[in-house]
Design brief:
Low-confidence stretches: none
Helix content: 55-70%
Number of helices: 17
Strand content: 5-15%
Largest sheet: 4 strands, mixed
Strand order of the largest sheet: 2-1-3-4
Order of helices and strands: HHEHEHEEHHEEHHHHHHHHHHH
Shape: elongated
Length: 415
């Protein structure tokens, strides 16, 4: 036990004092904030300030379309109306689109007793935002024209087209009713799942790289004189895992400080309100530790069979496959958190940490499902540790010999 704690302390202090820990602890949140900020700022004004021509043989409909486009505050479109328009007008307007005088041309043909047909022409095939706005304006204008033609007032027609908003609520297990937002729940679960999977994979790989570095430097031959292989592996897992918990704690404290600021309070209200329950706050470190132990044990056994970091990196995608599977199921889990596949994936140990948090974002599962999930994770960690420890005992002293499957089976028998 003493040797194991000494190794854990060495691993912890070596990584916490390193430049990489300080850089990632401060730099990673800053990079994510920068990415989000750049994405938000770059999306501002997309498809705005376009000069669009609306041409139709129906002046009333063309005027309605112009009104809809001009009333869109995000579009800020400058609309030219040509109605009633002739084929010669269309050719002239197309030439203006060609030479860049106009950004687009909406041509609408109307026939008695039939729905209008329309085409939109522009220089850019990728300006889907403007095309979508034009399509929305056309459809709303057609509905308005039919409603007003039937005797409805303009204000009533606009209100009918805009529709009615629906407030969503969730009935909790204790019978209480809480206002919810599906989009906010999705992003909450998605962010927590990314944070959980990213940290477990990163620190699992840190354990593997540490083993490869010490193996190639032959420092194991000295350390084995005072510590057993089991103590060395356990010390590495505890030390690196403590580094991960320290980094997550720093991130959570920083996030809490940001969330209580007036700026964040102004953003995370109304439709964007995010609620973190006590269940989520308590279970996050639990699933982090269990997920970390599972993946780091797997990576440790894998690293003991490799000679170089390059060889280790070739096998990393296979070890990371369960994480990819978890995110492939994200829409299914968020949409129906109690489906057979959602529950099964939350019981399957490699995907359980991520899937459980995706499920919690939609609805807190029953307590017995948490118990089964954590129990299966614990059993799988014990099984992987048993397997990895035996590979570790032999593999750390094997040099210059590729570990084939028959060779690995012999290692398990020797240990």
């Amino acid at each position: 036990m003493r040797n194991m704690l000494l190794i854990a302390r060495r691993e912890y202090l070596e990584q916490v004092r390193g430049r990489a820990f300080k850089t990632t602890t401060i730099g990673l949140p800053a990079i994510f904030a920068l990415i989000v900020g750049v994405g938000y700022l770059s999306n501002l004004g997309l498809g705005a300030n376009r000069q669009v021509a609306v041409a139709s043989n129906d002046p009333l409909l063309a005027g309605q379309i112009r009104q809809k486009l001009a009333g869109d505050k995000d579009a800020k479109a400058r609309v030219i109306v040509a109605a009633p328009a002739t084929p010669q007008d269309r050719a002239l307007l197309l030439n203006k689109v060609k030479d860049g005088t106009l950004d687009g041309l909406l041509w609408v043909d109307t026939a008695t007793g039939k729905l209008p047909t329309a085409t939109y022409t522009s220089q850019s095939a990728g300006d889907f935002i403007t095309a979508a706005r034009v399509k929305s304006a056309l459809n709303h204008a057609i509905i308005d024209e039919r409603l007003i033609g039937g005797g409805m007032q303009q204000g009533s027609a606009d209100a009918l087209v805009n529709g009615t908003s629906v407030a969503t609520y969730q009935v909790k297990m204790d019978g209480s009713v809480l206002k919810t937002n599906a989009e906010a729940s999705f992003w909450k679960g998605y962010v927590m799942a990314i944070l959980l999977s990213m940290t477990t994979m990163i620190y699992g790989m840190n354990v593997a790289r540490s083993i490869i570095q010490e193996k190639t430097s032959r420092i194991f031959e000295v350390m084995l004189a005072i510590a057993s292989p089991s103590d060395m592996l356990a010390g590495k897992l505890i030390g690196v895992g403590a580094v991960g918990l320290t980094q997550i704690a720093i991130w959570l404290v920083a996030a809490a400080a940001i969330l209580v600021s007036p700026f964040a309070g102004a953003i995370l209200t109304g439709e964007l309100a995010v609620h973190i329950t006590w269940t989520e706050a308590i279970l996050f470190p639990v699933y982090f530790v269990l997920g970390y132990l599972l993946y780091s044990s797997l990576f440790a056994g894998l690293a003991a069979t490799c000679e170089t970091e390059q060889e280790l990196q070739m096998y990393t995608p296979l070890a990371a496959a369960p994480t990819w599977l978890s995110f492939a199921l994200i829409m299914l889990v968020i949409n129906d958190s109690n489906s057979f596949w959602s529950v099964a994936a939350s019981f399957f140990p490699p995907t359980a940490p991520v899937i459980m948090f995706l499920r919690m974002a939609a609805e807190i599962p029953p307590a017995w499902q948490f118990a089964v999930s954590i129990g299966l994770l614990t059993l799988s960690i014990w099984a992987v540790l048993w397997f990895s420890t035996r590979l570790y005992r032999i593999g750390i002293l094997m040099y210059g010999k590729r570990a084939t499957v028959p060779e690995l089976l012999r290692w398990l028998r020797y240990s």
